[in-house]
Design brief:
It is a single chain. By secondary structure, the protein is of the alpha/beta class. It has eleven helices and eight strands. Mean pLDDT is about 90; it is low at about 210-220.
Length: about 280
């Protein structure tokens, strides 16, 4: 059976490149605890499907006693993309609950940057549905490159030094956390893993960024939907000169020297080096 081949290779052939890094993140950042009920969110892409299989293995071999629910939200996918997701769920033996939303339609009729609004609304729908199922955490499939790309995006376009956190509390949902267990897993390893099993997924189902005829929102420019792609290309070029650059970006968020920062913010309170400069 295909799903058995996938499960075996995850903890053997890809043990070092994927499984160990997944487990390391779970342990280091304390992402899973006894008594948790975790909603693993499957978007239909390679990353979220890998996350689902990792959790299935963790459930089998892990020490914590926790529950897992697999969720698929349809924000308005084409019938073809939705069928591909269902086929892969069956192929990989994942029992997922599918629920519908009309996010794509709503976002299309909104003014402003579509990516930000879409991401925010998707998160809200997922929190709501997970809460209905009694879950206290939702798990998303963001990987290593997502983390470092977010750090650079924040610096370049928001003028802030901040990163994508491995876990955080939901602002509008009591006792609900978001976790990112693939935090240390590189995208190249994920691609290699699925390629070795000859399994493909929906690549991009976004109506705006990936459609050859993205309707008539002419005010949406490349600046609205292409910043992450720009950062990906930049990192690709930088790696040609120094392969350690991505890892160093990741480490920089863990080696912050407050003595050499002009200003910082914690819990909404801003401070500067001048606050205790003459003390």
């Amino acid at each position: 059976m295909k799903h058995q081949q996938v499960e075996k290779s995850l903890i053997t052939t890809y043990r070092k490149r994927i499984w160990s890094k997944f487990v390391d993140a779970v342990k280091e950042f304390e992402l899973v605890k006894t008594g948790d009920k975790i909603a693993v969110c499957i978007s239909g892409g390679k990353d979220s499907f890998l996350l689902a299989k990792c959790f299935a293995e963790l459930k089998k071999h892990g020490k914590q006693n926790f529950e897992v629910k697999y969720l698929v939200m349809d924000p308005g996918y084409s019938a073809e993309n939705m069928q591909r997701i269902k086929d892969n769920l069956a192929l990989l033996d994942i029992d997922a609950k599918i629920f519908n939303s009309d996010i794509y339609r709503i976002v299309f009729n909104m003014e402003g940057a579509p990516c930000y609004m879409c991401a925010r609304m998707r998160r809200g729908y997922l929190y709501n549905f997970a809460k209905e199922l009694g879950c206290n955490k939702i798990a998303l499939g963001h990987h290593f490159e997502d983390v470092i790309e977010t750090s650079l995006l924040s610096m370049f376009y928001n003028g802030k030094t901040q990163t994508m956190m491995p876990k955080l509390w939901a602002k509008n949902f009591d006792n609900m956390q978001l976790i990112r267990p693939l935090y240390k897993v590189e995208e190249s390893s994920i691609i290699s893993f699925w390629t070795s099993h000859d399994i493909s997924f929906i690549n991009c189902a976004c109506l705006f960024e990936c459609s050859s005829t993205p309707a008539s929102k002419k005010e949406w420019t490349d600046d609205d939907i292409g910043k992450r792609k720009e950062i990906k290309l930049l990192l690709k070029e930088l790696k040609k000169k120094n392969a350690n650059i991505p890892v160093n970006i990741y480490r920089s968020a863990q080696n912050v020297c407050l003595d050499a920062l002009i200003g910082w913010e914690k819990n909404g309170t801003k401070s500067t080096f001048l606050d205790d400069y003459d003390c």
